[in-house]
Amino acid sequence: MYSFSEISRELNKYIDTLDLSGDPQSLYEPIKYSLEGGGKRLRPMLTILACNIFSENPYSALPAAAAIEVFHNFTLLHDDIMDNAAVRRGKPSVFNKWGQNSAILSGDAMVICAYKLLYQTPTEYLASVLSCFNYMALAVCEGQQYDMEFESRDDVTIEEYIAMIDKKTAALVVGATMIGAITGGAEKHNCQKLLTFATEFGLAFQIQDDLLDAYGTEEQLGKRIGGDIVENKKTFLTITALQKADKAKKKEILDLLADKQMANEEKISRMIAIYDELDIKTLTENEINTRFDKALAALDSIDVAAERLEPMKDVARSLLNRKR
Amino acid sequence: MYSFSEISRELNKYIDTLDLSGDPQSLYEPIKYSLEGGGKRLRPMLTILACNIFSENPYSALPAAAAIEVFHNFTLLHDDIMDNAAVRRGKPSVFNKWGQNSAILSGDAMVICAYKLLYQTPTEYLASVLSCFNYMALAVCEGQQYDMEFESRDDVTIEEYIAMIDKKTAALVVGATMIGAITGGAEKHNCQKLLTFATEFGLAFQIQDDLLDAYGTEEQLGKRIGGDIVENKKTFLTITALQKADKAKKKEILDLLADKQMANEEKISRMIAIYDELDIKTLTENEINTRFDKALAALDSIDVAAERLEPMKDVARSLLNRKR
Fold first, then answer.
1. Residue of chain A whose Cα is closest to the Cα of B148
2. What is the model's pLDDT at position B89?
3. Closest by alpha carbon to A229, among A275, A194, A167?
4. Pick from A22, A132, A202, B116: CA 20 to 30 A from residue B311's CA?
5. Closest residue to B145, CB basis, from A26, A141, A144
6. What is the pLDDT of residues A203-239, one digit of tens each?
7. Where in the sequence is the domain holding A264, given as residue range(s)?
8. Partners of B87 in the β-ladder
9. Per the CB < 8 Å rule, is B27 touching A142?
């Protein structure tokens, strides 16, 4: 079993020295740029950490972990086109730096690079890993489509929202974790518990992302605050606000969402004022905490020596800024 | 061994009844639409025909053949965004009908659907098929990037052009054929010959496509004549014309290519007049014929009973409008 910092070092070394070069360079440069973008590398970390719970050789999952990270960055490249996003992790997005066509095509190449990496999984686990990856990847596309559709809808329920982020965000967290568990040779009953952990953790993680968009700092978020509000994204905060508001307040929110003339800064500060009024921050924090507790309980119920779970707990806690 | 028409019937039935549905429908509808678009289904046909040369059960390659067709249609969805193309196979392109974001996202989902289909390949051949598919898919992206770069260059040589279409078009023809051969259990020396066949045939096929853009009918092409000329595409015709032209004529061609004011119809007819003057049609036809003859010679050298090669020859001939 390896510690979090040992794993982190190995994983970063592996991803930083991945050979994703080729001709024409103009196709591969945006790929390199996006992988060097300073992301948290949460998802590939989950892969190795999950493998580490069950196996003495967690690094056999390194190629699959890298595949997950490459796939995740591909989704960001294409999402940034669809969201018209100029900044990603504090730097110009690929879309902004190289243009739309490059972002489309380099993104496409990244999906294939991900499958090439996946292919290096130990043969005995390859079929299960591929099957899990395909399921995950399609779910991510479905989630993104729901997310775009929700932008033009005002009647999205919390249940619909949770189903959307379950695909758009949690599926990748779940896929990353399960692929690690499979490669670690985890038994079925333990996989089931890890699935619950990853699902609840993935949902909590997305809801925290929603929260940071309104109440975080640019540094925490890696992009400008209020982007979701400007883009009319249906987030946990918006939907909860609409649910809690009385008739007059609901109209105020809907008018604000529909207003295409208002300056971005004003729109953001007015929406946050409404959130404050309705105590949305506390409600959102409660939701995150509830889900995180469920996630931890599922993790604790896995049938291995308790210490094997510590590195996974450390990373989950640190990502949700939780002390314990 | 099955005949061309038997195989064609089975293949169409398989692709037409593929279950590519799911939620949200808005993600899967463009996928269905693009597969029903009435394409020639040349590439999956090559997969089954190649398998049919070596195996009594060519239909074991049906899932891989469908994967090739789904992947091919994915490239069209994304190419149409990059080329700003409103029409595909005589119908509105997905990009035109559902918008850019849908075309990006449904295209992404198609790549994953292709890998899901591939996964149904008989286990003994899966690793080789996946490896071949990955190689092919990345080559297609590289070729598309070169093609885009060539649009803003006036000094593209014939060698560079051939290297570009070798990736952009021939790689998919080669991949489709080789995946069929692998699934049919072909031996290495026969694979090598089939590779030469598919490469030369793929190149001839693309050069014919270039020819049809200037000298074909809209019915043959499935889109408006002269699209390559309007888009400043570097085709076999343009590059050969630049090569054959004297200094004055070369300037005329370059001025025409650079002119962004001229009406499309005029630009097309003036370029075709130059082609006529330089006898580009004949030169292009000669190139197609030379490559096709090389392709057939390689096919004939495959070490099987001659009759097993007939269905493959039939389809190659019919696609290049050749009697023998």
1. A101
2. 86
3. A275
4. B116
5. A26
6. 999 999 999 999 998 877 777 789 899 888 899 999 9
7. 4-319
8. B92
9. yes
Is the pLDDT at B254 greater than 70? The verdict is yes
In total, the C-beta contacts within 8 angstroms joining chain A to chain B are 100
Average pLDDT over residues B266-274: 96
Tell me what the mean pLDDT of segment A288-312 comes to: 97
Of residues A266 and B322, more confidence is placed in A266
Cβ–Cβ gap B142/A112 under 8 Å: no
Residue B130 with chain A: CB contacts under 8 Å? 115, 119
CA dist A288 and B319 (Å) reads: 60
**Per-chain mean pLDDT for chain A:** 94
Long-range contact set of residues B303-306: C-beta below 8 Å, sequence gap at least 24: B303/B187, B303/B189, B303/B190, B304/B53, B304/B54, B304/B190
* Residue of chain B nearest A136, judged by CA positions: B112
Q: How confident is the model at residue B323 (pLDDT cuts 50, 70, 90)?
A: low
Residue B283 lies in a domain: yes
In a domain, A237, yes or no: yes
Which residues in A lie closer than 8 A to residue B137 (C-beta atoms)? 112
- pTM comes to 0.95
Structural domains counted in chain B: 1
Pure H helices in A119-187? 123-150, 158-165, 171-183
Is A324 a domain residue? no
Whether the per-residue pLDDT at A171 is higher than 90: the answer is yes
The answer to whether residues B114 and B63 touch, using CB atoms and an 8 Å cutoff, is no
CA–CA distance, A174 with A199 (Å, rounded to integer): 6
Q: In the predicted model, is pLDDT for residue B221 greater than 80?
A: no
Supply the CATH number for residue A23's domain.
1.10.600.10
pLDDT at A322: 64
Residues of A in contact with B131 (CB under 8 A): 119
User: What pLDDT is attached to residue B232?
Assistant: 85
B30 Cβ contact list (under 8 Å, min separation 6): B77, B94, B97, B98, B102, B103, B106
CA distance A195 to A181: 10
- CA A207 to chain CA centroid, Å, is 10
User: For residue B128, what is the nearest residue in chain A, using CA coordinates?
Assistant: A119
CB-count burial class (<10 Å; 0-12, 13-18, 19+) for A37:
middle
DSSP state of A324: -
Supply the angle between the helices A62-82 and B100-118 in degrees, to the nearest 10.
160
Confidence grade of residue A318 (pLDDT, cut at 50, 70, 90): confident
Tell me A170's DSSP state: I
What is the Cα–Cα distance from A215 to A90, expressed in whole angstroms?
A: 17
Domain assignment present for A85: yes
pLDDT-derived band at A53, boundaries 50, 70, 90: very high
Angle B91-B92-B94 from CA coordinates, rounded to 5°:
120
